[in-house]
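go over whats below:
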Amino acid sequence: MNLFAKLTESYDNKTNLDRLASRFHALSEIGATPDFGATRVAYSPEDRQAKELLKGWMREAGLRVREDAVGNVFGLLEGSRPELPIVLAGSHIDTVPNGGHFDGVAGVLTALEVAQRWKEQGYAPIRGLEVAAFADEEGSRFHASLTGSHFMMGELDLEAVKHYRDDDGLGFEEVLRADGLDAARAHEAARKPDELHGYVELHIEQGQVLEKQGLPVGIVNGIAGPAWLDMRWTGRASHAGTTPMGMRSDALAGAGEFVAVLDSLPEAFSPTAVATVGKFDVYPNGSNVIPGEVKLVVDVRDIDLGSRDRLIDEIVRVAQEIAARRGLQVSCDVNIKIDPTPMSPLLMACIRQAVEREGLPAFELTSGAGHDAMVIGRRVPTGMIFVRCLEGISHNPAEWASLSDLAVGLRVLDDTLKQLASSP
């Protein structure tokens, strides 16, 4: 698949977006999968290749480029008053396994395009504009997301990630060392919140709200808080042919019952709550062996902190009840737990003005997915721009945003960043 051709085939090109489309295409080829998706798991060789390509584009744009000790990449367009806090914009370029080409990438490439156009047009902002690509946003490497932005905001340190292990059993320091990074300097990634005047993240919606509204862009008013529960179901592995049904301690049967029940739990607590099991490992994974152990991850989210945490308590209670009834053991450990994050009213107002200048209604919506903006937004004024996503499909090779919608998002982002970077 030629992503450049697909992006540009139905776009009238009133504004030259060939460079933006070609960069989407170039990244799509790194970690390309047979399903026409991409796999760029954080700190992998593919992730490294993409970062080096991005840094080259940043230098081409005339930005001052650096990468911190945990793999966050930054490109700075200097402001006329360097003593002032800067404006930050971006997202991430790592993917889930066999993911799409727009999640995260759209935010980084549009922010870079804004900075490069300002440089080419001779526009000199008062405040510096820094383009960011945060490391390990997806959490696919260590099953704990938003790693880079957590380090940048001082919410993670090396001690806090000592327990991180990837699917090959490699620890955080070992993985970073293989990527050419020095985890011992991870503390240097932390930045003071008062260094940042604001953060703006453009992202595909990953939902169908904008599509149903017939709108190319929307204004995010808040981000639901995710919590990940690591569950380990333990029974007894035994022969599938010689162990009577009534004498089994089948970890998979218990975990399977739990997953089936989980589907009905969120609606009892909140209309916006969701719970998902997307990772499921069975041991010893033999066709003629009754499973003795199952490991799974439960992803729980809601925009209301209280209802989300009550749902978590109920999920744990239900798991324990099923395990006890079946003679199994189950452990439930919260791996990550992030509070919901409201967006800054000031930045929402800036985005609203930019949207209205496009002749569009300023439509607000909530993000059910987690983003780096939710980490940064706890300490720095933060805003998000959503771009329409075809059928709401994301984390999938079929993920799609049209170039015409991205063009609207780019103009809204440009306008918003100008408002922020021009304020003394």
